[in-house]
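Preliminary data (for renewal application), zinc ion complex.
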Amino acid sequence: MPELPEIETISRQLNRLIVGKKIKEVKVKLPKIIKMTSVDFKRALEGAKIKSVDRRAKLLIFELNNGWSMLAHLKMTGQMIYKTTDHRLRTTVENKHTHVVFFFTDGNRLLFNDLRQFGYLKLVKSAKLQEYFIKKSFGPEPLVKDFTLPDFKALLVKKPNVRIKQFLMDPKNIAGIGNIYSDEILFFSRIHPLRRVASLKKSEIKKMHLSIKKILADAIKLKGTSAKDYLDAFGQKGKFAQKLRVYGQEGKKCVKCKDKIIRIKIGGRSAHFCPVCQK
Ligand SMILES: [Zn+2]
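Predicted structure:
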């Protein structure tokens, strides 16, 4: 599932690609993707201009110039890809999994593809967005400057008995971290995924706070991780997969100690880690 770095990549790219463009027509090929009737959806979008593209947690936010914002959640296999008439940037990404197409007045398009069909699009009044996020109980954004070490500690104190891997993956604690980046953050912090929050030392918490910022920022620089279906807004794969140290590396040698990376089940999800380096 795409996590913060992947959604942030798409958001930044689309901000450069489609802001100011006017939507001429919306084609909904699979109505269940839209969390309202296709008629109402089209009525709100057609004729509107894109004011900005942003991200909160794992949601893409398209603010329109008519008071509406469209939210897109990519869930497991969703993609949001720009299809341009510019032959230099041309991508071949329109396929049988293209469920919604946004046609802009300049001939370019935005595609919503989703193989597994768990993703969705919905409209929220822009003025009600903050209220909507509060209702969803999203935790703080880890990359903003004011997500400080004391803030992180304050979150941890509330969940002393939770295992740290599960703590990191719960969007109500911190927004945007899933299976891939929680594994990588714990490897860089040298912390075993099954540790309980209350057992963490001050120095470990500090290391983890730094690792969260570093790993997520590094992943954004490389446009995310294409573990499975994730593609960026240009239809290209992210390159952070080459930098993964533990996620998906089961049976491979640890880059630090050369012992083997192992995988265990935890709460229905997998944790990948080095049993020597992570205590
Ligand atoms: Zn190791």
